[in-house]
Amino acid sequence: MLTANYVGNQTIDVREAEPQAPAAxxxxxxxxxxxxxxxxxxxxxxxxx
Length: 49
Known about the structure:
The protein has about 50 residues and is α+β, with helices and mostly antiparallel strands. The chain has one helix at about 40-45, and strands at about 1-10, 10-15.
């Protein structure tokens, strides 16, 4: 699966990763859609960290 992680300094790291089984007390969901909100853009542009 692909993962996207904000690593700081206006950088998002996209890489392939193996799915992990949920730990005790956690659940696993299947994501149908994802989006980026305005706060995400402020973080990427360095206005928040």
